[in-house]
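Protein modeling request. Please complete all fields; requests missing the sequence field cannot be processed.
Requester role: graduate student
Desired output: 3D structure, token encoding
Chains: 1
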Amino acid sequence: MKIWMVDDDVRVQRLVTRLLGNFMPRAEVALFHSPLPALAALATESPDLVLMDGVMPGMSGPEAVAELRRRGWTGPVIEMHGYLPADYRVPPGSRLLMKPFHSTALLDLVSELVKTFFDDFYNLLTICMTLQWIIHSTVMCRIHQLQLIIDLR
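Delivered output (153 residues):
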């Protein structure tokens, strides 16, 4: 699983990277100090989950998430904010995590989103296996029919 951590605070990056490393040792965590390099990386790779700071130089987290969506990326986002305007609405596909946060709050959110990711993957795999069984059954039925025709001659 590929996780992108976009935050200009190195201390937050270290903390989150350490937590994710302990929680998901096989996850690949890519660090970005601002949204612009993350958006550039989207041209060649796609994360499974993005952790996005709310306020960064150059582009805000919500602006970056909107740009990710505009470019066609549909994966889950955890938006990490220290403060929010009263009228802020979390966009679809995003979850909100207020700073300062407890490690269990972050890990609970990641766990929920990863479970959703794997549930979707499992559902897709189940559909593929069902289709494979249908195709196999159809082919075997046709072979059986041909065998009967050959036997009748």
